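[Automated response] Your request has been received and processed.

Submitted sequence:
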Amino acid sequence: MSHTAHIRSHRKPRRSASTIAMRAGVAGSVLSTLAVGGASASSASTAEPVTQTLELPTLTADLAAQVAQSADATQQAAANYELRAERDAAAAKAAKQAKSDLAEAKKKAAAKKKAEAARAAAAEQAASRSSERTTLAASANSSSSSSTSTSTASGSAAAVIAFARAQIGDAYVLGATGPNSWDCSSLLQAAFKQAGVSLPRVSQDQSTVGTPVSLSNLQPGDILYWGSAGSGAYHTALYVGGGNFVGAENPSTGIVEKPLPWSPPTGAVRVL
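Generated structure:
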């Protein structure tokens, strides 16, 4: 026998299995109760949030609809603003074009008025010239009864006149001396050469040869001049009788026979 056998063990006596099982059962029951209670409490505590969770989608949908409506309204406002801006730009462009068209119309109207005034002035001037020519023609006809103005060319004068008339239709070219183009003084120089008369080449000198005669006392073969005799003369032609003259007038007419009133001369000289 051990020497410690009579000393009580300092360890606690072991509980029996039944006691432990009973306590375990009690504890399990308590834990189950607590779990159930906790679950109940948890369910109770989450009951109110469940209500909020159910309402949240409704609030979110309303808010989304409001946002969508606001976006649509903003987009529509932007579209309306853009449309107004385009209309304003079109109106401004149309106004600018209208202003330009009005200015152009005024300019054309002013030009038309100016052209009409010019035509009226030209018509008045033409009528005045026609009146002057009529007066001169009447004067020439009144003096045609004199034997000097109606006398038929003969001798040397006839040869000069025949040559000049033969060139009618030829061209006028300044400085030309024939045979198909002439200027005023070269035509007379060539015509008088047919009668054996040597004339100077230019109009200024031709206006001073021979004897000065009055325009009311002309004879066929007389030399007519325009401007003042001498250095002031700028044109010459040949008087052919009947109130007419033959001359190289200008590039547009060439060599022509015209009545004195068509272009009244300034003076005349006689060399035949």
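Summary generated for your ticket: Residues 76-143 form one domain. The beta strands are 171-172, 181-182, 211-213, 223-227, 233-241, 244-250, 254-259, 267-270.
If you did not submit this request, please reply to this message.
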